[in-house]
Design goal:
Layout lengths: L7 H13 L4 H16 L10 H8 L3 H11 L11 H13 L2 H12 L9 H16 L11 H9 L17 H10 L1 H7 L17 E3 L13 H8 L9 E7 H4 L3 H8 L6 E7 L4 E6 L16 E6 L3 E3 L9 E4 L10 E7 L2 E7 L5 E2 L16 E2 L1 E10 L15 H4 L1 H9 L8
Parallel strand pairs: 1-2
Antiparallel strand pairs: 2-12, 3-4, 3-12, 4-5, 5-6, 7-8, 8-9, 9-10, 10-11
Helix pairs in contact: 1-5, 4-7, 5-6
């Protein structure tokens, strides 16, 4: 009588054969060489990669590293460690699988206890591992842990699933996907744990922050954890060095001073606001802050929250109302100040030209909620950071070329309307 079901060994062999097809011969040879090297260090007679060697090589600390080892070694049971078949099947699913397969793998990965229920305590363990893996070895002198930052990441999570035998609500796969959308740095980190550790893994890099030595890091709105979070909204090559260009308590709460500080060659900037209610939020401007009479910018621009919740809101394509920078306009239809998204007088985020008030409304440009607790707010601290290529902070910006009217196209267009542009050439 024949078997109606395949044996575990034959099923595993079938999965290995299918997984192998996800890689070229050269890739398989490279993975075989990696496995052979790590297994040789594992005292398993070359049969498997031991837990200690696996964790040391991939460098994922804490409970998340342990859970990653469990999932990768799951195919063979993990008694000896990670076999070559384990490695290929896991990397094929996790690195080359469909979107649903990858999301499911990461969802299981974050279930630290392995009980099939993703709870808040699981996510706390995940974030603790991220902190230990990414930040613990990258602290400068005098910089401590910032638990408040990771509390904000956790505060953006939604738990809507009723789980049997558990009193608290759990996170569904849909909840988890939405959380990862709001926190792209988290998704990048969790999606690249099995990449070679020397390859500049997405989600593992922290922007370098440059600021005057006489400023205490405790006073800055931006820290490394927040920069890691915001940087997740960029493409990988854009996460570089950030330089403090403007801080209201240092340079004065002046729009003209702000523009003078941020238009000296730094095209990409991160604007951060702390309001009098204690909320912290802002926007990434991919284009320079320049005087315009209408919206401008490109689809790289986004809004973000930092505290008490951390989230990123990317453009939806609903409109092109991305950046706003207006000064010395007398028309009520052109509010003077800087902003992101929405409509004039109803922005996703707006600071008045006096920098003494602002507003934030629900915004279809980014599908973002109000960033502040109330639609109208008063800024307490304003910071602006310039994004620079590594090693480029000492390079001198090119001199601005052209006449004033060539640099300010809006002024030129307005003069044309009254017939003065040509006479001023």
């Amino acid at each position: 009588m024949g078997n109606s079901q395949a044996s575990p060994a034959s099923a595993s062999s079938s999965r290995f054969a299918m997984a192998s097809r996800a890689f070229s011969k050269q890739e398989l040879d490279s993975l075989r060489a990696l496995f052979t090297s790590l297994a040789a260090q594992s005292q398993t007679s070359g049969r498997a990669i031991s837990r200690a060697v696996f964790l040391e090589y991939y460098g994922v600390r804490g409970a998340l590293g342990e859970r990653l080892f469990q999932l990768v070694a799951k195919e063979s049971g993990g008694s000896d460690g990670v076999t070559f078949e384990d490695l290929i099947i896991s990397k094929a699913t996790y690195g080359r699988g469909t979107r649903d397969e990858v999301d499911e793998f990461i969802y299981q990965l974050c279930d630290i206890t392995g009980d099939g229920v993703l709870t808040r305590s699981d996510l706390e363990s995940v974030l603790a591992s991220i902190h230990e893996t990414v930040f613990a070895e990258n602290k400068g002198v005098g910089e401590g842990s910032n638990d408040r930052t990771f509390e904000a990441l956790l505060n953006s999570a939604v738990f809507s699933k009723d789980a049997e035998g558990v009193s608290e609500k759990a996170m569904s796969l849909s909840d988890f996907r939405n959380w990862c959308t709001l926190l792209p740095s988290l998704r990048k980190f969790l999606g690249n744990l099995l990449m070679p550790p020397d390859s500049g893994r997405p989600g593992f890099e922290i922007p370098l922050l440059h600021y005057p030595e006489n400023i205490s890091t405790d006073l800055l709105l931006l820290n490394k954890e927040y920069a890691w979070h915001i940087g997740g909204g960029f493409s990988q090559h854009e996460v570089q060095e950030w330089k403090l260009l403007y801080r209201s308590s240092l340079h004065g709460q002046s729009f003209n001073t702000f523009l003078g500080k941020v238009t000296n060659g730094d095209a990409q900037t991160v604007l951060i606001v702390k309001d009098t209610e204690g909320s912290v939020y802002g926007g990434y401007a991919s284009q320079p802050w320049e005087r315009h009479s209408d919206f401008y910018g490109d689809m790289k621009t986004f809004l973000f929250k930092l505290y008490p919740q951390a989230s990123i809101f990317r453009p939806t394509g609903a409109n092109k109302n991305l950046q706003w920078c207006a000064i010395n306009f007398s028309s009520e239809n052109i509010p003077n100040g800087i902003g992101f998204g929405g409509q004039p007088h109803h922005f996703g985020l707006f600071l008045s030209a006096n920098f003494d008030q602002g507003h934030s409304f629900t915004c279809s440009t980014f599908t973002s909620p109000p960033l502040s607790k109330t639609n109208r707010f008063r800024p307490e601290v304003i910071e602006c950071w310039g994004i620079q290529m590594r090693g480029a902070q000492d390079e001198k910006p090119e001199l601005v070329k052209g006449t004033v009217l060539e640099r300010f196209k809006e002024d030129r267009n307005m003069l044309k309307l009254v017939g003065l542009a040509n006479s001023s050439d």
